[in-house]
Amino acid sequence: MNKSSDFLALARVCEATLEHYRLRFEDGAECEAVPAGALRWSAELPAVGDWVRARRVDPALALIEHVEPRASCISRQRPGGGGAQVLAANVDLIAIVMGLDGDYNLRRLERYLVLAAASGAEAMVALNKMDVCAEWPARLAEVRAITRNAVAISAHESIAPIVEFVRGRTVVLLGSSGAGKSTIANALLGEPRQATLPVRESDSRGRHTTTRRMLIELPGGGALIDTPGLRELALWAGQDSVDDAFADIAALARQCRFRDCAHAGEPGCAVSEALKTGELELARWASYMKLLTEARYHERSVDQRAAAETKRKWKVIHKAIRHHPKYNR
Questions:
Q1: What number does CATH give the domain 73-226?
Q2: Number of other CB atoms surrounding residue 296 within 10 Å
Q3: How far apart are CA 154 and CA 169, in angstroms?
């Protein structure tokens, strides 16, 4: 930030569509905004939830000059590859919504928990539609075996367990289309602002009723970020985030006799022993290995991209030096 930042106002991004934004300033005023020229060519454009410094051009438009450092950042790999896609920034709590109908899937939930671990935000799980699932106590126990913060609700009846987690914080709802995110959002807001549609009976999947990410202030304090359902969730996370989400497996690995144990039947392997005794489910171990492979691939890809970018920058610098008049003296 330079001296010109003195006249820039602090605002929060409450909507983002491509390079068009809506900002909410500290005095409560809102206006449309676009990135300033220098910011448009930066590595990271603003996302919903970002705090930014903006210059008002007129009452209806502002130029975003600077993005403040993020306290947390929820990212996934862009569908089809090509780098990270930021879903939301400066989130205190990620509420992962999963239906207790055909949407219920522990392996997908583990993927969401890795994403949450990489973000720096706290995570909770809301198992919705308990009224249509007689086995909901058993499923809730399954989820609580892999993450402590989990509740079961029927969003169209009561979301009281979620309210206790949300109060005074910025929360984002993540989950599949049809899981009930918009119903929960409406209950938190105290009014039907988000459209809802019934899911297909054949597969319990829904259509996108939320079509863009937006930040909405909550009546009791805090803010809600509602997002479209995610059909694809390729990881943008490292090995540490996978270990955080699979803390039970990481703890077992630390008990292995050898520090570099591959968990493939080596003497004194605590993981192999846990698989034999049933302490560790084979399906959870397979999920861990799959996500760990993705995380390792991600780390290699990031390193390669960083090396290529560094090489490109030095190539530009060397070219500029060679063409400088003083170089040929």
A1: 3.40.50.300
A2: 13
A3: 22
* Strand pairing class (61-67; 30-35): parallel
Encode pLDDT of 188-225 as tens digits.
Answer: 998 776 655 455 454 445 444 455 788 999 988 899 99
Q: How many Cβ atoms sit within 10 Å of the Cβ of residue 286?
A: 11
In what helix (H) or strand (E) does residue 247 lie, and over which residues does it extend?
A: helix 247-253
Three-state secondary structure call for residue 75 = strand
Q: Which helix (H) or strand (E) holds 107?
A: helix 106-119
Check whether 43 has a pLDDT greater than 80: no
pLDDT digits (tens, 9 = 90+) for 131-153: 999 999 999 999 999 999 999 99
**Alpha helices in 22-98, H assignment, sequence order:** 37-40
3-67 placed in CATH 3.40.50.2300: no
User: Where do the structural domains in the chain lie, given as residue ranges?
Assistant: 3-67, 73-226, 239-311
130 and 206 in contact (C-beta within 8 Å)?
no
